[in-house]
Amino acid sequence: MDTRERLIESTRTLLWERGYVGTSPKTIQRLAGAGQGSMYHHFAGKEELARAAIDRTAEEMRAAAEAQLSGPGAPLERIAAYLRRERDVLKGCPVGRLTQDPDVMAAPALREPVGETFSWLRTRLAEVVAEDDGGLDPAATAAAVVATLQGGYVLARAADSTEPFEQAIEGILALLGRA
Fold first, then answer.
1. What is the pTM of this model?
2. b/e burial code for range 111-127 (CB count within 10 A of at least 16 → b)
């Protein structure tokens, strides 16, 4: 892995663990094993590096979701596979956690990939819901699924237990199954 990639991967890790404010260039450089000159050779500054890291995280999140949502099975089975896939629940969603970071939300360049990722996820889930003729409003259902998923992370982190997350997921799936 070259220096640019190490910087991006180190920033991704630190953003997920510490947020934007808690991620200093020195900490990024230390984790990446790169000098200050190397960082500024590849990126104009912390914001540009953070944007590259957020873009990468968002791309991976979309790819993982797409793998489940376009897989085999009925629409509800695919949504269930997506919601039940293995996750680091107690760390939270690496994109969702960025919404709680005021510096990310105040910087359009950093907020943009976060908003785009959630918009894509709601749209993609709505497409899957629309495949089923269950009478559900696809957009409203997709928004409820995403809200449940993100809220489940928050509840799990607050309780320091994956149980609230699992309950939220099973609850939304039960509601979807009854519709």
1. 0.92
2. bebbeebbeebbebbbe
